[in-house]
Every structure is written in structure tokens, then in C-alpha cells.
Amino acid sequence: MPLxxxxxxxxxxxxxxxxxxxxxxLDEGQTVAIIGANGAGKSTILxxxxxxxxxxxxxVRFAGEDITRLRADRIARAGMTMVPExxxxxxxxxxxxxxxxxESAARKGPWTVQEVYALxxxxxxxxxxxxxxxxxxxQQMVAIGRALMTNPRVLLCxxxxxxxAPAIINDIYRCFDRIxxxxxxxxxxxxxxxxxxxxxxxxxxxxxGRVSLEGATSALAMKxxxxxxxxxxxxx
Amino acid sequence: xxxxETVVNGMLLGGLYALVGLGLGYAxxxxxxxxxxxxxxxxxxxxxxxxxVPWTPVHPLLVVVPVAIISFIFGILLQRLMINRVLGQxxxxxxxxxxxxxxxxxxxxxxxxxxxxxxxxxxxxxxMGFDFLGLRLxxxxxxxxxxxxxxxxxxxxxxxxxRMGRIIRATADxxxxxxxxxxxxxxxxxxxxxxxxxxxxxxxxxxxxxGSFTPYSGADRLLIAFEVVxxxxxxxxxGMFAGGMILGVTQLVALKLDPSSGLxxxxxxxxxxxxxxxxxxxxxxxx
Lengths: 236, 287
What we know:
By secondary structure, chain A is of the alpha/beta class. Chain A contains 10 helices and 10 strands. By secondary structure, chain B is an all-alpha fold.
């Protein structure tokens, strides 16, 4: 049984339907990528799964439980959280206070403030600094750390590479192995296809709110991905 | 010397004004909610104080404790049962809701207590004075300033160093993202409104000890609260404290020069500061 299973998900913003009949699944220990152009509905899907956006139809099952109508804070307590797009740190809090917010989920597990500092040593030196004054890459590390502090079983990552220099993006993705080793399953959203394909074992390509292509990343040809990404030819 | 005494008395009054603003400013800073009923809640707390004083042991001043506790619980219920239902991008429903509550509350108080002027009797304390560096000061105003300073400092430290304070600050930054850490922002809002109500209630009771009030005093109280918050700069604790001081000193100095001016010069000072620095004192410092 998959750890996370989304079936026929429709998501709305008022009258506008942004996501149309999307199904996807994630097994324990797996990393799955959702790729697609700007406005394809990637973030909308994650916001719906994590409970931030409640205007949805279809079903979301997590660890065998139906969580479609569950509030976001309950979902986080149940073991699924998100690194939101644009990081959205608590800017008036210090780095360490941002991390400690994750303790509110009251979940036991391997991730503590010390473990996060071991993963991102730079953050340990900056622990007393206001989170708003950090560089983009450091902020992204805090955002990931804050999510890990809830000791999630599923981590949803929304555009980790947004606005970051390539060297920093590589640093951040390099930590994924450590995170996976602690038993966390990951869903990543990316505009950067090459990055997503290396990080994930399975990928869904989204076009205008629908899945236009899916498969194991080792089996997907770049030509097909390009077509599904831009919608230049009809793929199923 | 008489002028020094006036300024000092203005500061003693200003500390209390700051406390009147603190509840409103705290609620706004965290939830971006403008509680138009705050002034009438302040008056209702004063009535509650009048009602509870005969049962208060040791000293009437201690009536602030039960009033604060009752108001805290009331604030939580108010937020969770009513205001949380109208949260959203649009601020009009919140303003309509609290405006409606203000009308109901005011008329309810007139119905129950009549329109007469009332005061909380603190016994001899009201008339006691002492000499300090050649100044003649009242004991009650000094005690009230002490309470105001203690509440400002206490709230500041609690927000900075406690676990709940951290959660409240994070919720003020981004109420949606705190959910991803397992925090129910509706519950946090309830606690924040409880604190705002308790602070306002203490201010209301202390005002009623220093002076008098009627069920219609709410509008004046709300105006003072708004002016303190705006002069201070939204969301800044010590800006609000300074805002209260400025209002208090301006009012008493002006009353000395022009005894029939009432609150007018305080309001003019408010307009002047708004004109010079639209973001209040905190905005001036930040610049």
C-alpha cells in the first residue's frame, strides 16, 4: 500500500479550477518529482495535499487514513509537512526559534535542532540571527530544517531551487540522501527538469493542471519530457 | 516646579493610556483584526470591577486580578466562537461584527446600570499622596503606572522567551505556514485575543479607579487606544508606551494652559505626529 495516495484530485481557487483529476502515489522511502512549467498547477497540488488549500475534490490518503478533509495542522501532526514555495520563514524569529517551531507537531523521531545543525553546519553558526536577514540559500536550509523538526514521514518540497544559485542548489539537493536515510519519503516540485530527474526515482509531468506524462525517471526520455512539459505534441 | 509636576503627572496618566492602547495594538499586531468593540469592552470590564469590588479581599485594587481572568476567558470564547468565523482577506466582516458587538454591549450596559457616572471605590488610596524631590504626587497614579510598566515589560519578556510567545510571534508572521508545524492558528488567535482582552480589562478597571465612567465612555476609550497605537507605530510595544506618554503629557500640560480644552490638544498632537511621521514613533526610529 502506498504511503501517500492521491486520487482524482481537483483543486479550485474560487470558480477557477487549477488542477484537474490528478492521481499520484508515493511509496515508503521513495522520492517522487512533480515537474511542469509555471502555472501548471504543481504548487496547487502540494497546497491541497498539505491541507493549506481546502477547496478540493477527490481523495488524499496518507498511511491508510483518508485525510482529504483534515486541517493542515492535523496533517502535520499526523506526519506530513511541506517546505513552502518561497521558503516563508518566520522573519521576526531567530534561526533556532524557526527550527523549534517544528516541535509544535509533538512528533518523536530522529530530527532535533542538533541534527539539523549537523546537516547544515552553517545554520549552527547563525542560530541567534534573525531568519529574515539570511541569504536565500541559508533561508532554504532553515525552511527544510523547520519541516524536518516535525519528524515527518512525508516531506513535500515546493521549488527548493527557486531563486538560488546553481552551486547552492546542488548543496541543498546533496542533503536529500541524509534525509532519506532517516526514513523520510519525499515529494519534490521542480521547474528544473534535470535536477528533478536526478533527485527522484519517479516523476509526474504536469501540463495545465493535468498529468501529461509519468514514469520511472530512468525510463523517461528527455524528448518525451520536453513534449509533455511544454505541450508541444499530445502525449497521454 | 508646578510645570515639572504637571509633566510628571502627565506621564503617570500616559502609562495608563499606553495600557489602554496595548490590548488593541496587541490584537491588531498579531491577527490584523481591528476590534472596534475594544472601547466598550474596556467599559464593561470597569462595570465588572464595580460589581466585584465588594467581594474582593485585602484591597480593592486586587479586583484587577479576577477581572483580568474573566476577560481572558471571555476573549478566548469571543475569538473562537465569533471572530474566527469571519477571518479572511476581507476586513469588512470583522469590523461589522465588532461594531455590532459594541452597540449591543453599550446598550446592554445602559439597560443594566443606567446612564449615571460611576467609579470604582479604592478607599483612602485615592486621596493619598507623597512628596518626592519636592513634587507632590498621588499614590494611586504611581501604583497604576507601576502596573502598566510591569504589564508592558512582562508581556514583552513573555513574547520573547516563552514557547507560547514564540508560537504567537510566528503566527503573526504567517498564520498559514504555522499550520505546517502542527500549530492550530485558530487556537493561537483565541489565546492572543484572551491576552488582549485581559490587558484592556485591567486598563478599564484602573481608569475607573482614577476617574469616572458611564456606559457611553467606550468611544473615548477606543479613541485613546487608537491614538496610542497609531502614534506608537503598529505592532511596537515600546512605541505604544511612548505614544501613551505623549498623549498623557500633552493633555495635562494643555489643560494647565487652557482648562476648558479637554482632550482637544491630545488629539491635535496625534494629528501632528501622524502628519510628521505616518508610521508613528517606531517608523521614525526604523528610518
